[in-house]
Design brief:
Blueprint lengths: L3 H31 L2 H27 L19 H28 L3 H31 L3 H17 L1
The structure holds MU-OXO-diiron (FEO).
Length: 165
């Protein structure tokens, strides 16, 4: 049986993963409307992955005798200044998610919940991958600058990343 304290923290993480999914969906919509179909595909896929992260925690919490709860979420941003600024926001958000996972790990160690600690290892690994993927995209965007040709090329790369990851 999971402790109240860990259950509460997992419910907070469920909220954050759902919020992440909506943030990336909103970004994907903006990209699609602005004519970046590759970036849109990449972000739609990322949004799906966040939904999967959310579900993974929901299932775990219910399985351990807890009760996963959904709650109201804040409105995600609808407009972005540029593709580069948008991906800077993605990275900022992923760092926030990483910190939140680290806090959860810390709590599990404190209360000696080794089962949840073990469950969270998957998320620790996932955050390393996600941060490095987004950093790679930002590096490319930095190289391209605002040049139309460069952005066109990066959008194509994002389409193939979305298809192959
Ligand atoms: Fe579920 Fe991108 O963190």
């Amino acid at each position: 049986m999971i402790s109240e304290k860990v259950a509460k923290a997992l419910n907070e993480q469920i909220k954050l993963e759902e919020h992440s999914s909506r943030i990336y969906m909103s970004m994907a919509i903006w990209c699609e409307v602005q004519g970046y179909p590759g970036a849109a595909e990449f972000l739609y896929k990322h949004s799906d992955e966040e939904r999967m992260h959310q579900l993974k925690i929901v299932k775990y919490l219910n399985d351990r005798g807890g009760h996963a709860k959904l709650c109201s979420l804040e409105q995600p941003a609808l407009e972005f200044t540029s593709l580069k600024i948008l991906f800077d926001e993605v990275l900022k958000h992923e760092v926030l998610v990483t910190n939140s996972i680290n806090e959860l790990v810390h709590l599990c160690m404190e209360v000696r919940d080794y089962t949840t600690l073990n469950f969270l290892q998957w998320f620790v690994e996932e955050q390393i991958e996600e941060e490095s993927l987004v950093k790679g995209v930002i590096d490319k965007l930095n190289l391209a600058g605002e040049a139309k040709g460069g952005l066109f090329h990066i959008d194509k790369e994002l389409a193939s990343l979305a298809a192959n990851t």
